[in-house]
Amino acid sequence: MGRKEDNIAKAATLVNKAESIRNIDIAAHIDHGKTTLSDNLIAGAGMMSEDLAGKQLMLDYDEQEQARGITINAANASMVHQVDGKDYLINLIDTPGHVDFGGDVTRAMRAVDGCIIVVDSVEGVMPQTETVIRQALREYVKPTMFINKVDRLINELKLNSEEMQKKFIKIINDVNKLIAKYAPDKFKKEWELSVQNGKVSFGSAYNNWAISVPAMKVFNVNFNDIVSMVREGKQKELAKKAPLHKIILNMVVHHLPDPKQASEYRIPNVWHGDLESQVGKSMMVCDTKGPLAMMITKIIVDPHAGEIAVGRVFSGSLTKGQELYISSASGKFKIQTIAMMVGPDRIQVDSIPAGNIAAVIGLKSAIAGSTVSAVADMEPFEPMTHYTDPVVTLAI
Ligand code: GDP
């Protein structure tokens, strides 16, 4: 079995272990490196050839996207990553990076519990950085950060290790100001980013290396080593010593919540029905045996399969042949096909339990934002608020 097939087989088992799942997205100002990072994470996790990463924009599979060079299709790519001998399933939702597609960003945020905010180290925090942070925090999505394009600080701006660290601190402070401003009160302190707590990584998505303070010991690399290796043109060597996907996915596993942990505080924020009802109780604990409740975050039109609804299962298990209600549509709809999405591949499965992202054929009247449920009169999920970029941003 190839690595990709092996990972797909593992993923099919991991969908049943909530504590081993992380639903995340990558959020960034345009051109800060979200696509490059997504590609290289997927390649690093063995889901596509490493040679193709960065060249074949795996998540950008619409021709329109290719032509515009902008990621507009919020697709999903599942990856398997091992930390301390344990396998994890990372469901990475691709979110658009462009302001025009803000509605899609917001919807994708509903499906995830954590995010990686990417900030270009040369440009720092930009207006769309603020917008995506605000959207994430509004949805109670916990942040981590990747400071990208560090190679440019070294090769183009000629910064030394100390100057580079000053730049990082400025970016972290700016992002923390936004977290202090937009995070739910109870998480303002807990979700603060710092170099020491390991919720921030630095590196070059393009050149495939990264580092975080906790990873420095484990991978035996410090800031001075990075500066000298980049200056000496040894970024390939650095990518072997401190591989981007390992550092970033370790950060994700260690610092972002699993769907069960997240449901407890996210459900009351995104669903205003009766938390004491059967479906309410089930969603709060991500019960795979409860009544089915799912929110559709994206409709993909496939030339062969037709309309595919993609969304997050919050309660119960989505099963082939199940008949479900869709908010604002009358009657029941039969689930024909269920799949996990691995980049452009759809891997068909018989069932997907709560805590996961699923692609479904059969929900004909569903639109992005629809609530799908086994309960006839289920209170729909809250509509998602979309923010446009701020007129006044931080003084940076
Ligand atoms: P997105 O708009 O956020 O998806 O950004 P992209 O991933 O498309 O990257 C924007 C540009 O920055 C592309 O030309 C990338 O090749 C480049 N880029 C991304 N990461 C790095 C990096 O680590 N170093 C350098 N020098 N360029 C990068």
UniProtKB/TrEMBL annotation:
<keyword id="KW-0342">GTP-binding</keyword>
<protein>
    <recommendedName>
        <fullName>Elongation factor 2</fullName>
    </recommendedName>
</protein>
<dbReference type="GO" id="GO:0005829">
    <property type="term" value="C:cytosol"/>
</dbReference>
<dbReference type="GO" id="GO:0003924">
    <property type="term" value="F:GTPase activity"/>
</dbReference>
<feature type="binding site">
    <location>
        <begin position="94"/>
        <end position="98"/>
    </location>
    <ligand>
        <name>GTP</name>
    </ligand>
</feature>
<dbReference type="GO" id="GO:0005525">
    <property type="term" value="F:GTP binding"/>
</dbReference>
<keyword id="KW-0963">Cytoplasm</keyword>
<feature type="binding site">
    <location>
        <begin position="28"/>
        <end position="35"/>
    </location>
    <ligand>
        <name>GTP</name>
    </ligand>
</feature>
<feature type="binding site">
    <location>
        <begin position="148"/>
        <end position="151"/>
    </location>
    <ligand>
        <name>GTP</name>
    </ligand>
</feature>
<feature type="domain" description="Tr-type G">
    <location>
        <begin position="19"/>
        <end position="230"/>
    </location>
</feature>
<dbReference type="GO" id="GO:0003746">
    <property type="term" value="F:translation elongation factor activity"/>
</dbReference>
<dbReference type="GO" id="GO:1990904">
    <property type="term" value="C:ribonucleoprotein complex"/>
</dbReference>
<keyword id="KW-0648">Protein biosynthesis</keyword>
<comment type="similarity">
    <text>Belongs to the TRAFAC class translation factor GTPase superfamily. Classic translation factor GTPase family. EF-G/EF-2 subfamily.</text>
</comment>
<comment type="function">
    <text>Catalyzes the GTP-dependent ribosomal translocation step during translation elongation. During this step, the ribosome changes from the pre-translocational (PRE) to the post-translocational (POST) state as the newly formed A-site-bound peptidyl-tRNA and P-site-bound deacylated tRNA move to the P and E sites, respectively. Catalyzes the coordinated movement of the two tRNA molecules, the mRNA and conformational changes in the ribosome.</text>
</comment>
<keyword id="KW-0547">Nucleotide-binding</keyword>
<keyword id="KW-0251">Elongation factor</keyword>
